[in-house]
Amino acid sequence: MGEGDVERIREQVEAVYRSDSRSVLATLIRILGSFDLAEEALHDAFAAAIEGWPRDGVPDHPPSWLVTVGRFKAIENLRRRARFDESMARIAQGIESEGARSPDPDDEGLEDDRLRLIFVCCHPALAPEARVALTLREVCGLTTEEIARAFLTPASTLAQRIVRAKSKIRDEGIPYRVPGRSELPERLDGVLRVVYLVYNEGYSASSGASLLRCDLSSEAIRLGRLLVELIPEPEVVGLLALMLLQESRRAARTSATGEIVLLEDQDRSLWDRARIAEGTELVERALRSRRFGPYTIQAAIAAVHAEAASVAATDWAQIVGLYDVLLRADPSPVIELNRAVAVAMRDGPEAGLALVDRILAGGELDEYHLAHAVRADLCRRLGRTAEARASYERALDFARQEPERRFLERRMAKLRPG
Amino acid sequence: MKYLCLAFGDQKKMEALTKPEFEDLLAQCRVHDEELRKSGHYVSGDSLEWAAMTIRPRNGKPVTTDGPFAESKETVGGVVIIEARDLNEAVRIASMHPAAHLGEKLGWGIELRPFSPTCHQ
Hints:
The complex is a heterodimer of chains A (418) and B (121). With 418 residues, chain A is mostly helical. Chain A is 73% helix and 0% strand. Chain A is elongated, with a radius of gyration of 26 Å. Chain B is of the alpha+beta class and 121 residues long. Chain B has one domain (2-114): 2-Layer Sandwich (Alpha-Beta Plaits), CATH 3.30.70. Chain B has helices at 11-15, 19-38, 87-94, and strands spanning 2-10, 42-47, 53-58, 61-66, 74-83, 109-114. In chain B, strands 2-5-1-6 form a 4-stranded antiparallel beta sheet. The A-B interface holds A 36, 39-40, 43-44, 47, 80-81, 83-84, 137, 143-146, 155-156, 158-159, 162-163 and B 1, 28, 31-32, 35, 39-41, 85-89, 91-92, 101, 114.
């Protein structure tokens, strides 16, 4: 075999790593009962592939080959370690006898294991930030350093979070399985929340690290696609649709200098038509199921915006109607606020302002900058300049991100003196 | 990515060990050392002598003193460089080091530091 062939096979091994290492890892975690043993076995299996495949050829089904070799290497490692830790011999024995009983997994088995891994990484017993970190590292294959950069966290803090989460999974014996029918909806909701959190972290990019944070959004969409493949429940489809539709506006929602551009001012020719088409089709699919929830309804609202040629041409009545449905499925003051904005577009600013004032009187959104920003804008449209100014100032008291602060200051400066 | 494992220990306590105690410890170290070296992540490393020289700039010129850089009970007694995919993998591999298993009463422990080649570009 020539040098070119060796190089070609090395590239093949790398391609298999990119496409299959996560499912192989997921299966090894089940077989070996430990994240650390599985990670080690995965490394050893790929090292064996780089050494063996140029000589023996690439196996027919690389993932099964890697699982088999990984398990064998793990047993070997444990037996060697039994020299200083006798408990290792027992673990090796257990893995070996278990392996003799169950055959190596086929594609379907590998998919089941991926789903198990997702549910364990998003387990409610883990702290929310640990779920995000673990999912991105184990399921998506990001490195600790990549996750740390994206979340603007020191790598050592993030590494420790992951170490702790894994110890918790081990010490509390969190089972490696897909939840049963009775707890599935709630647990699936927890998984979707993690995915959407990752998406939003990337979507609400502050200018400095925007490039890396954009990667988080594409990672979330990739995860969404994987979930749709593994567990095509309507809300899973709805979440993917929502992310695609929001993502379709990415190029239009900030200016070249990183300033916020409101929906009404966006250049709609910059919207990504392919994403809109895919997102809209997915929403329709989720809606047809009649078992949809909040993600699907939010996606439906985004789809109404996406199909409108301008703000004026938007079907605001339909949007208000969808917010009504959303409020019934998932009551929250933030959604009430969004509904108030839509009502203002349908019935005029006065009607919107009455709703916003009632929401603010509830007190829950008193420190939410967008509630005051919405009020300021409605007052501006009604010519109530002094009130608008006071509300912009209140919004600035609570806005943290620089582009948002600059946006509010610009709007305030444009108010006529009064 | 490359990572540096600094293995610390208490010099005074180490020197107070009797010869058989020391030999026994060394034998226990060997199996862990072998684990680390065979892991496929080992780049290089070794134990260090306690004797240290320090060189610092004084008025822009290097000046030498006899002794370690920082005075503390625990001193670096060994270094290992490992290659790992990320910091969490490095933690797992560094945990194979003898100083992560043995010498609890001798102040043993590992400090793990990522190499940061971008600093010098």
